[in-house]
Amino acid sequence: MTVRSLYHRSFLALVSGGFVSALGTVVFDLVLAWWVVSETGSAVLTGYLLAAALAPIAFIGPIGGVLSDRWNKKAILVVTDVVSGAVAFGVAVMAYRNTLNVPLLALSCFALGTCAALYRPAARSIVPLLVQERHLVKANSVSNNLTETTKAVGPLLGAALVALPVVGVGGAMVLNGVSFWLSALAAAAIRYQHVTNGKNVSGVLADLRAGFRYINSRALIRNMVILCAAVNFFLISFNILLPLYVTEVLHGSSATYGRALTAEAVGGIAITLLLLFLHDIVPTNRLLAALIAAGGMSLALIPVVPAVTALLLFSAAQGFFVGGFNTLFFAYIQKEVSQEFLGRVFSVVYMAAIGVMPVAYISWGYIGDYALRWGFVYAGLGTVLCSVPFLLLRQHVTRPVAELTRITRPAQPSEPVRAAEPARVVEPVMAT
C-alpha cells in the first residue's frame, strides 16, 4: 500500500476540514485566554470557560455517540461546523465591541463543546467507511499528524494574529469562525451514503443503554476504555507540571516553556509520519503497551537531568511515543468495534479520557506544589504500570455471525471499485 491510496476525495475532505477547524480552535483557545485575562486579570475565569467547553464532551458525549450511530454522519459534521462557526462569530462581535459578557461567553463555550461532543465520534466513526481496513493505521496517522501540527503552529499563529493591529483579538476569533465554515464546506464534499440497519429504534436512551451493554459485554473494549482513562490521568501531569518545572527548577522563561511544548508536538508529528510511510503496521495490544511504557519512561526521566536540553529531548520522546499510541489506539478501536456501535464507543472513550481531567488537574497541582521534581517520576511510573494490563488483553474478539454480514460503504463512481468487505467488528484521546 502507498500513501497515494489515501488520496481520494472523501478522506482528504474529512482530514483537511478537521485540520482547518482544529487550527482555528487552538488559536481561539489561546486568544480567548489572553483576552479574558487582559480584561479581567483573572486566570480562574479562563479555567471556568474552558471547563464549560469540556463539560459537554464529558457528560453528554455518549448522546453524541448515539446520534452518530443513528444519523447521517456527514450531516452531523456539516451542521456542527456551521453552528460552531456562527457561535465563534458571536464571540468575535463581543471582542470587537470590547464588551466582555461572561454569561454569554460561558454559554458560547458550552455550545462549542456540545458541537465538539457531536462532531468527534462522527468524525472518528466515519473513517472506516471511507478507508479500507488495511489502511486505517495510515489514515489515523494522517489525521493525528495534522492534529500535532496544529499544536505546534496554532499558538504561534494566535500570538502573531493578536499582535497585528489590523487583526487583534476580534480578527483572530473571526478567523476561527471562518475555519469552521471552511470545514463544513469540506465535509459537504464527502461522498458518503447513510445506510440504516433496518432495526426498530426504540429511542435515544434505549440506544445509549445498548451501547453501554455492548461495551460491557466485550471485555477487550471495556478494558481498553478503562486503561485509556488511566493513562490519560497520568499523562495530564505533563501539562500541569511543565510550567512549574520550567520556572522553579530550570529558572527559564515562557520561551523555554513554549519550546518544550513545540518539542512535544514535533515528536508527535515524527511518529505519525513514520507510521504513514511504514508498511503493514498492525495495531496490537503488545505494541500499544510498548509505546505507552516508553512514553511513561520519557516522562519519568525529565527531572533526572535538570537542563533545558534534556527537557526538550524527553518532551519530544514523550510526544513521539504517546503520538504513536494515540494513532494505533484509534485504528485498533476502529478495527475491533462493530460499525453499528462505533460512534458510541468513541464517545465513551472521549468521555472517559476527559472525565478524569478535573481530578487529575487537582491531584497533579498539589503534587507540583509539594513534590515538583518527583511529580514527573510518579506520573511516568504510573504510566508504565498502565502498560502492563495491555499485555493481558486478548488480541482478537470473536465476531458474531450476524455481524459479519454488515453493509460497508458502497463504492462511489469516482473512486476505484473494490470488493465488499465484512463490517469491522472491533475518543489527549490522550491529553498530551
From TrEMBL:
Subcellular location: Cell membrane
Keyword check for Transcription regulation: no
Domain of life of the source: Bacteria
InterPro entries recorded: MFS_trans_sf, TM_effector
Stretches that traverse the bilayer: 12-37, 43-63, 75-96, 224-245, 257-278, 287-305, 311-333, 345-367, 373-393
Pfam family, one: MFS_3
Keywords (A to Z) from UniProt: Cell membrane, Membrane, Transmembrane, Transmembrane helix, Transport
Topology within the bilayer: Multi-pass membrane protein
Keyword Transferase: no
Protein name (Swiss-Prot/TrEMBL): Permease
Species in which this protein is naturally found: Plantactinospora endophytica
